[in-house]
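User: Predict the structure for this protein chain, please.
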Amino acid sequence: MRFFRVSSVLALLAAVFAASAAAFGFTDEALLPPDLQLGAPYSFQLSARSGCPPYYYEQQSGYFPGGVGLNRDGLISGTPQLGGSYQVWLAVKNQCPGDSSERPSSRRLRSPFPLPAER
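Assistant: Here is the predicted structure, written as structure tokens:
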């Protein structure tokens, strides 16, 4: 009887953790954007999993480099005009009431020209 109780508890815990692993949110690919390059056109599509499609995306805080923005469909695009590192908090929402997922997202803007060596 004790074996049955322990097995039942373990099965219940496994079901809870498996369900949370497949929960609504950004896909892993959406959290690994390529770097931006100064003056070069940029385009990156965010993606989400589970939930109740259609999904829509919002910039919660922070900022993208000048010339780059996020549309409601999750497309980050534009031509960056200023170098540096940028961090934004992004959110994905869907049609299920109360569902949303927020994540920080960093973008690094590289210059197409190598920096001169220090002397």
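Residues 93 and 104 are 15 Å apart (CA to CA).
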